[in-house]
Amino acid sequence: MIVFPVALLLLFGCCLGATSHAQPRLAADTWVGGTPVYPREINTNDLGGGFESLRAEHLAEQLKVKWSPGALAAQPPVTLHFSVDAPGHWPARDWRTLPMAQRGAVWEATLPVEELDVPIVYFVSGGLAARQLSPMRAVVPRLTGMEKPARVFWPFLDGFEDGVAGWTLESASSAAPLLKLSPQAHDGNAALSVTLPAGQPAVTAGTARVRGWHYSHQLATGLRIWLRAPGGAGKAKFTLHAHARTSQAVSVVSLVEATLDDKWQRVELSFSSFPKFPHVSADWFTIEFSGTGPQEFLVDDLRLLGRWKLPGD
User: Fold this and answer.
1) Under 8 Å CB-to-CB from 251, ≥6 apart: which residues?
2) DSSP class per residue in 188-201
3) Among 32, 98, 34, which residue's Cα sits nearest to residue 66?
4) Which residues contact 16 (CB under 8 A, 6 or more apart)?
5) 4-17 pLDDT per residue, tens
6) What is the pTM of this model?
7) Is the confidence at residue 85, as pLDDT, over 90?
8) Alpha carbons 130 and 65: distance in angstroms, whole number
9) Residue spans of alpha helices (H) in 177-309
10) What is residue 177's predicted lDDT score, i.e. its pLDDT?
11) Cβ distance 236 to 226 under 8 Å?
12) Residue among 253, 162, 157 at smallest CA distance from 207
């Protein structure tokens, strides 16, 4: 018999709440209450019914999300959107997607569980333009009966092999593409290219890949990232944000500043280099590049520091 800490159960109960869409099938998996905010690219005008059967359940040491459309015909492709963190932090969540496969009358996908005690928020969309959209649900893997993660936690946060979807510019006053992939990678096939336009002193790129639970649950001690300024020189400053883009926002600039040139440079940022920052609430990480535009800066291989040893360490 597994005994769960009272604090964990109380925290989950405060964060989640059932809505009128359906009664939760499991106490561990329920509708998200309040007013959750969907990713910017999702058209919430398509939010509707027909998702009463949507649920996550523990099967054969995996966490499956299943949806039976019933009388509502699903509009392929059906996509599972998920984000690992407690409900909240809506303006700065790290959303990922998985295709859902049809098994008879049921659409399903397997969530990649790496941490048992951190909730996973998820929803489903159908159609090329997300013409069908479910309400959000949240599940705590341990409370479904999972006793071990489905895979080992991986501290590598982004290598840009899958594109730049996890990154945005803080401001983009130019119509030119300022954020794109570059084949000049430090490792692998791609790096993130950030362009500083002519006439601007700096440009800032940000990501929600860095989360507070990396610090509180995985005991990460900092970040490592590789940077380069092809054919030029410049500087990089680093900022961690908590409750980003809300009235409770907190941001702290690292004591570490990098001077960049045409060679790849490894930059290590201990969490202690962000003084008086509430690390358990981190949800946004930014890099400010400064130099003489127009100028390109390259970013690659963002990862967590801590107890892990990866190739190249």
Assistant:
1) 239, 240, 241, 242, 244
2) SS-EEEEEE-TT-S
3) 98
4) 30, 31, 32, 33, 87, 119, 138
5) 343 333 333 434 33
6) 0.88
7) yes
8) 18
9) 212-216
10) 60
11) no
12) 157
